[in-house]
Amino acid sequence: NNCGEVIGNYDLNLWDPLATRSFIYRAGSVHDLGTISGFNNLATAINNYGQVVGYFDNGWTKTGYLHRSSGEVIDLGALSGATLTEPLAINDAGVIVGYSGELAFQYQNGKMSAFGTYRGYPIVSAESINNCGQTLLWYQRYDLSFGTLIYSGGHMHDIGIPGGGKGSTFGSYINDRGIILGTYNAEDGSWGNFIYRDSKFQY
């Protein structure tokens, strides 16, 4: 983050499937973020206030959490019927996004809600959120291809695909200027990377 704090994951024992732990590097020291018995702990994102999100994983379930800078750990819960919850991003306002089960979620003020659908297609993951509240969402079409949406102020905009035509886009990061980084899979099967800014692709 902007304060030089770094998060990551490490293995206590390469032969133990439940020995993965998370850490935060802060002010020249490494601090273990702990875990719960029988679970791995994997950190996924940090904001500029030192709040970390991640999940506890035992191979069958994933439990999303918020680890506050005070050391308090909050269980994010799950969408109805979901056993796999993975937060993927947190902004400086403390808004968390990710996926729970097969749907994208937003967690704010202690409540988790689903993004629902886009033109009848399920929105399956929220990959990134910036400090303006713009969120990158993935939706899945009936032909199993994926599209990327920008969600802002209750509105969704499909960014399309480089070059037009059919295929999939996977937006992975959006900064505070609204610039998006991601990858795409074109109709001919080729893959590439892109930058999306000012409603245009660069690739």
Index terms:
single chain; 203 residues; mainly beta; five-stranded antiparallel beta sheet; four-stranded antiparallel beta sheet; 0% helix
Architecture blueprint of SSEs:
Layout: E1 6-11, E2 20-26, E3 29-32, E4 40-46, E5 52-57, E6 62-67, E7 73-75, E8 85-90, E9 96-100, E10 103-108, E11 111-114, E12 117-118, E13 121-129, E14 135-140, E15 146-152, E16 155-158, E17 167-174, E18 180-186, E19 191-197, E20 200-202
Antiparallel strand pairs: 1-2, 2-3, 4-5, 5-6, 6-7, 8-9, 9-10, 10-11, 12-13, 13-14, 14-15, 15-16, 17-18, 18-19, 19-20
Beta-strand proportion: over 45%
Q: What gross morphology would you assign?
A: globular
Rg, please?
18 Å
Counting DSSP H or I runs of 4 or more residues, the number of helices is 0
Strand order of the largest sheet: 12-13-14-15-16
Number of DSSP-assigned strands? 20
Give a short overview.
Helices cover 0% and strands 56% of the residues.
Structural account:
Helices cover 0% and strands 56% of the residues. It is an all-beta fold and 203 residues long. Strands 12-13-14-15-16 form a five-stranded antiparallel sheet, with no helix packed on it. It has a four-stranded antiparallel sheet with strand order 4-5-6-7, with no helix packed on it. A hairpin with a 5-residue loop joins β4 and β5. The chain is globular.
